[in-house]
Amino acid sequence: MCIRDRYMGQLQTAFNASLAKLSEENTKELGMEELQAAISSHSSPQALRIYLKLISEGAKAVNTSGKELYVLLLGCIAKKYKSSMIDPIDSPASLEKTISRVCKIAYSYLNVHSRTKT
């Protein structure tokens, strides 16, 4: 395992542990501070992939009060990455595809469903 892979594994573990803190009232503030610090410090495409993956996976596990914090994190990510918010999972990777994915993740937390005509 190369150093970069090990580093990304450590980032994933730390980010996931901080996300877990958002579920508890007494650790919510600390968790949010840690997550914002991680996003500010690590802004590579690989880090973006980790953030989006973990935030997306948390949609089912997070409690109601934590959902708005997860959506806020998506905003922090967008603010940090701006036009370089390109998820490397896409082929070809593009800003539009990543924005679409981020919107879908946000909708899943807000439990917003598009209305269909009947």
The multimeric state of the shown protein is single chain
Rg (C-alpha, Å): 15 Å
Rough outline: globular
The average pLDDT is 88
Percent of residues in helices: 55-70%
- The secondary-structure element order is HHHHH
Uncertain runs: 113-118
The main β sheet shows up as: none
CA(first)-CA(last) distance:
54 Å
Strand content: under 5%
Secondary structure class reads mainly alpha
How many strand segments? Answer: 0
Number of helices: 5
Name some characteristics of this structure.
about 120 residues, mainly alpha, disordered C terminus
List the helices and strands and how they pair.
Elements: H1 3-20, H2 28-41, H3 45-57, H4 64-81, H5 95-110
Helix pairs in contact: 1-2, 1-3, 2-4, 3-4, 4-5
Structure commentary:
- With 118 residues, the chain is mostly helical.
- Helix content is 67%, strand content 0%.
- It contains 5 helices and no strands.
- It starts with a helix and ends in an 8-residue tail after the last helix.
Brief characterization of the structure:
Helix content is 67%, strand content 0%. The chain is built from five helices and no strands.
